[in-house]
Structure to design on (211 residues):
């Protein structure tokens, strides 16, 4: 378990996150079929395949450059609302880390907090509306609380909080996005965006052996 990662380490961390999305496409598709049109997994596969290519093409990446590369690729290739919000998460979250040579616990918390704020602005949604925010917001809070212990503990805390937040979306009524039209039928299902956040942060945690 590491307290901080340099640019190459951050690239490997993000490659692990992308691999988790790619291996979880069927799971994401199944989740979206319950509340949407079933295309979330396919879109995320396109976006994170592009992210893998973008990460591979970076020379001497910094943490911020690696995060921005993922966001740019996802925004350009995923399509739909998922491309906009997941791309925004990574691109906006990378900005305050520019000029920093390592990603540590505090940097992770800043990445999550800044990305969360930008996603809320872009999507016009808030916590409790059955979206990715319901996983990302508790993850950001947990990462900040554990930031002083280093990157590994902060990632472990963030991943656990994201998982609990995603599970909590089962009981929520969707009030935004495509699932809104389902009304009460949206209850009983995990939001696919929240599940994607959980896959990403869980893979990062496992990559560092921080579980």
């Amino acid at each position: 378990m590491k307290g901080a990662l340099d640019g190459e380490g951050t690239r490997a961390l993000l490659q692990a996150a992308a691999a988790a999305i790619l291996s979880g496409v069927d799971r994401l598709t199944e989740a979206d079929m319950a509340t949407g049109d079933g295309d979330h997994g396919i879109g995320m596969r396109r976006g994170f395949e592009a992210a893998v290519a973008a990460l591979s093409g970076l020379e001497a990446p910094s943490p911020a450059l690696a995060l921005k590369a993922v966001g740019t690729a996802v925004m350009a290739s995923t399509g739909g609302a998922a491309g906009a919000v997941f791309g925004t998460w990574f691109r906006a979250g990378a900005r305050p880390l520019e000029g920093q040579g390592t990603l540590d616990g505090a940097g992770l918390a800043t990445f999550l907090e800044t990305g969360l704020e930008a996603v809320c602005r872009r999507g016009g949604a808030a916590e409790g509306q059955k979206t990715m925010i319901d996983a990302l917001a508790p993850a950001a809070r947990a990462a900040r609380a554990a930031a002083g212990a280093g990157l590994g503990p902060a990632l472990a805390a963030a991943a656990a909080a994201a998982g609990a937040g995603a599970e909590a979306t089962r009981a929520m009524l969707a009030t935004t996005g495509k699932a809104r039209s389902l009304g009460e039928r949206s209850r009983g299902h995990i939001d696919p965006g929240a599940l994607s956040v959980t896959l990403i942060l869980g893979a990062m945690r496992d990559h560092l052996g921080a579980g």
Notes: The chain is about 70% helix and 0% strand. The chain has a mean pLDDT of 92. The beta strands are 4-5, 103-104. The chain has one domain: 4-208.
